[in-house]
From TrEMBL:
<keyword id="KW-0716">Sensory transduction</keyword>
<feature type="transmembrane region" description="Helical">
    <location>
        <begin position="201"/>
        <end position="227"/>
    </location>
</feature>
<dbReference type="InterPro" id="IPR000276">
    <property type="entry name" value="GPCR_Rhodpsn"/>
</dbReference>
<keyword id="KW-0812">Transmembrane</keyword>
<feature type="transmembrane region" description="Helical">
    <location>
        <begin position="61"/>
        <end position="80"/>
    </location>
</feature>
<keyword id="KW-0807">Transducer</keyword>
<feature type="transmembrane region" description="Helical">
    <location>
        <begin position="141"/>
        <end position="159"/>
    </location>
</feature>
<comment type="similarity">
    <text>Belongs to the G-protein coupled receptor 1 family.</text>
</comment>
<dbReference type="InterPro" id="IPR017452">
    <property type="entry name" value="GPCR_Rhodpsn_7TM"/>
</dbReference>
<dbReference type="Pfam" id="PF13853">
    <property type="entry name" value="7tm_4"/>
</dbReference>
<feature type="transmembrane region" description="Helical">
    <location>
        <begin position="239"/>
        <end position="262"/>
    </location>
</feature>
<dbReference type="GO" id="GO:0004984">
    <property type="term" value="F:olfactory receptor activity"/>
</dbReference>
<keyword id="KW-0472">Membrane</keyword>
<keyword id="KW-0297">G-protein coupled receptor</keyword>
<dbReference type="GO" id="GO:0005886">
    <property type="term" value="C:plasma membrane"/>
</dbReference>
<keyword id="KW-0552">Olfaction</keyword>
<feature type="transmembrane region" description="Helical">
    <location>
        <begin position="26"/>
        <end position="49"/>
    </location>
</feature>
Length: 327
């Protein structure tokens, strides 16, 4: 149903990646391998610790576990393919593989946009409405928020994947990108893509700008509440925490906005390749460090549930060394 006749005869796409900069392929391979490994280790640790320690069975860590899980899936949807192509002379991906990568990466990226906004609301409720927090963020409401983010994102991405992959490409199969992504695929079309571009723009406003505005508003209220803290040390600590959260949020949204809130016709391949690395590989690596691994509650849980059980095991020692390096 989705196949373009010309594309089905070829059976694959060629991901050009940085083939025009071959001197950078080894460097990018090493950097992405390190980033991917840290993402797997950090996010897996958060999921395990949050599920094992009863002290972390709270709305905040429920959403953080969701974020860690989708970051694991997000980076895995593109990272291994990138690594393979960097060390291969034939940088191809099957048509079905490209469809799957496009849909999964787009869905998970959209889910992260909504999840970050939900997490900002949770922090707002916790800090600005402390007496009503447990009533506001009930277990049922948390499940409804998370389910809405996942279902809306996967449904919206299905529409864009179908519309993008059905465009005729007149035999073109060389994607000038690191992975299958909407702007790069629209550039291959040999027909007018104005309708597709309008749909991408409308979705980007809803998925990117609206949640970002909500996050900034939530942190504005949080900042006003922090200013009322009598202890100077407490204010500085709270502002440092908020600043680190906002830095990662702005890195993720800023790079995604620069990619999707522009017409694909003006899409810059070279800039797009670098920008895409930030929201697919860098922020998923930073999220567990910024949001969780700097948290004393998580340090205590790690000590109790992981490191404290068998501190002489190789796995525990490796994890401890990684945490020391990360923190």
């Amino acid at each position: 149903m989705w196949e373009d006749g010309n594309q089905s005869s070829l059976g694959e796409f060629i991901l050009l990646g940085v083939s025009d900069w071959p001197q950078f392929e080894l460097l990018l391979f090493v950097l992405i391998l390190i980033s991917y490994t840290m993402t797997l280790l950090g996010n897996t640790t958060i999921i395990l610790v949050s599920s094992l320690d009863p002290h972390l069975h709270t709305p905040m860590y429920f959403f953080l576990s969701n974020l860690s899980f989708l970051d694991l899936c997000y980076t895995t949807s593109v990272g291994p393919q990138m690594l393979l192509n960097f060390r291969s002379t034939h940088k191809s991906i099957s048509w079905a593989g490209c469809v799957a990568q496009l849909y999964i990466a787009l869905s998970l990226g959209s889910t992260e946009c909504l999840m970050l906004a939900i997490m900002a609301y949770d922090r707002y409720a916790s800090i600005c409405q402390p007496l009503r927090y447990t009533a506001i963020m009930s277990h049922r409401f948390c499940l409804q928020l998370a389910a809405t983010a996942w279902l809306c994102s996967f449904g919206n991405s299905m529409l864009h994947t179908i519309r993008t992959m059905r465009l005729p490409r007149c035999g073109r199969n060389q994607i000038d990108s690191l992975f299958c992504e909407v702007p790069a695929l629209l550039k291959l079309a040999c027909v007018d893509t104005s309708a597709n571009e309008a749909e991408v723009l409308a979705s980007s406003v809803i998925i990117l700008l609206v949640p970002l505005g909500f996050i900034l508003m939530s942190y504005g209220y949080i900042g006003a509440a922090v200013l009322k803290i009598s202890s100077a040390k407490g204010r500085i600590k709270a502002f440092n925490t908020c600043a680190s959260h906002l830095a990662v949020v702005l890195l993720f949204y800023g790079t995604a906005i620069s990619m999707y809130l522009q017409p694909p016709s003006s899409y810059s391949q070279h800039r797009g390749k670098i920008v895409s690395l930030f929201y697919t590989m860098v922020t998923p690596m930073l999220n567990p460090i910024i949001y969780t691994l700097r948290n004393k509650e998580v340090h205590g849980a790690l000590q109790r549930k992981v490191l404290g059980r068998s501190p002489t095991t190789q796995w525990a020692q490796t994890l401890k060394l990684w945490l020391v390096a990360a923190l």
